[in-house]
Amino acid sequence: CVLGGVEIPHPRGLDGHSDADVLIHAIADAILGAMGEVDIGHFFPNTDSRWKGVRSTVFLEQIAAKLRERGFVLCNVDAALVAEAPKIYPHIAAMKENIARALAVEVSQIGIKATT
Q: What is the spatial distance between Cα 93 and Cα 36, in angstroms, rounded to a whole number?
C-alpha cells in the first residue's frame, strides 16, 4: 500500500495503473483544479504505458513544474486520509517529506491528517 509516497506494509493495497497512491493523486488533482486545469488522468492517462507502475511523486513533480511555469506559487497543501487500516499516523512525517520534495516546497507547508 503506497500513500504519500510511502510504502506501508499491509496485506491489502490499492490497485491502479501507476502506484495507486490516492493521497498524491488527490493532491495533484487539487493543484490542477486550482490552476483551472483538467484532472490528473488527462496528463497521465492509464492508457499510456509510460505511466504503468510509475511512482505518483513523478506526477506531482511534473505538475509542480507546470505550476511554476504558469507563474503560480504553492502556499500550502492540506489533506486528510480516512482509513481504518493501515494505521497512517506513524507514516505522516515521511509522507510530508515526500510530498514537499516533489513539490519543491518546505515540509512546513504540507499538512496531512489521518482519521478513521
A: 30
